[in-house]
Amino acid sequence: MTAAPDSETTRAPRQLRRFAAAYLAGHDPGDPLAGDAHRLTERARSYGVDARLELYPVSAHVFHYFWSFLPEAADALERAGAFIRPRSRLR
């Protein structure tokens, strides 16, 4: 049995490509928000904010939640704490 030229099986992949293109809006599919993060960091620095941006090679959103078994997550939290502690009243 073959699918009709405009059947659900042929439309679905086209729709998925359209949805992905709309979501990415021209951004890098590997990390669609990296450019925004870089711009935000630079903008904050231009106003005198001590801003840091550290990117990790992990493809999970909010990867730091997995600190108990993901070494990169534990490292990210440790580094965030080291950055925040001297700048806060929580020393």
Number of beta strands: 0
Overall 3D shape: elongated
* Major beta-sheet overview: none
Report the average pLDDT across residues.
85
What's the helical proportion of residues?
40-55%
* SSE pattern: HHH
Secondary-structure class: mainly alpha
Rounded to the nearest angstrom, the radius of gyration is 20 Å
> How far do the termini sit from each other?
70 Å
Strand content: under 5%
Contiguous runs where pLDDT drops below 50 for at least 5 residues: none
Tally of alpha and pi helices: 3
Description:
This protein is mainly alpha-helical and 91 residues long. It is built from 3 helices and no strands. The longest helix is centred in the N-terminal third of the chain and has 17 residues.
Topology (SSEs and partners):
Blueprint: H1 8-24, H2 34-46, H3 71-84
Give a short overview.
The chain has helices spanning 8-24, 34-46, 71-84. With 91 residues, the chain is an all-alpha fold.
Keywords:
single chain, 91 residues, mainly alpha, 3 helices, 48% helix
